[in-house]
Amino acid sequence: MRTMFDLETGDITGEATQSQRLICDLAGVFADEEARAALPQDTVVYRVKMHDKEKEGTKGGLLFGTSFVNPGKVGREYFMTKGHYHAVRDTAEYYFCIAGRGALILMNEAGECWMEEMRRGTLHYIPRSVAHRLANTGEETLVVGCCWGADSGHDYETIARTGFSKRLMDVDGQPRLV
Ligand code: MN
């Protein structure tokens, strides 16, 4: 079967695998743990569709995927991904926004945190040694295409321990990094 990438929806069909994260998988990720625990635990926060031609860890290989972050909030904090550094810090990544509205939240190893606004067509280069996560600030699904080195790996552990130094919150109806 031919593998297809849908330019409108970001869906990958053919040779593709899918994973997802539910509210119950994200304990401790959001500021308001009580609000998270009160949501229906089977709520899908985000899913990732991947065209994984290479095993993670394969030197010189590339991986490609689409992230779909659903609209929603935990308290005043927008639905977002867990976020990660690359296990091999010296590796970059490209993101591009296909649909929806959101933010790419970035943090360097000095703990400086900033964001890039995402909307259909925006292109984002994630430099080496910079942690990254997606947040949906809109009312539709945020759809983001991603391409990264297969040997980059994922370090979720550091972010699980330290978090990002800032959070993207709804402040009087506007997304603000606080
Ligand atoms: Mn990455």
Plain-language structure description:
The protein is built from two helices and 15 strands. The chain has 178 residues and is mainly beta. The chain has a single domain, classed as Sandwich (Jelly Rolls). The strands form five sheets. It has a six-stranded antiparallel sheet with strand order 3-4-5-13-8-11, with no helix packed on it. The protein has a three-stranded antiparallel sheet with strand order 10-9-12, with no helix packed on it. A two-stranded antiparallel sheet has the order 1-2. The longest helix is centred in the N-terminal third of the chain and has 6 residues. 28% of the residues are buried. The structure holds manganese (II) ion. The site of manganese (II) ion has 5 residues, from loops.
Write the layout of secondary structure elements.
Elements: E1 4-5, E2 12-13, E3 17-22, H1 33-38, E4 44-51, E5 62-69, E6 73-74, E7 77-78, E8 93-99, E9 101-108, E10 113-119, E11 123-126, E12 130-136, E13 142-149, H2 157-162, E14 168-171, E15 174-177
The structure holds manganese (II) ion.
Manganese (II) ion binds at residues 84, 86, 93, 132, 148.
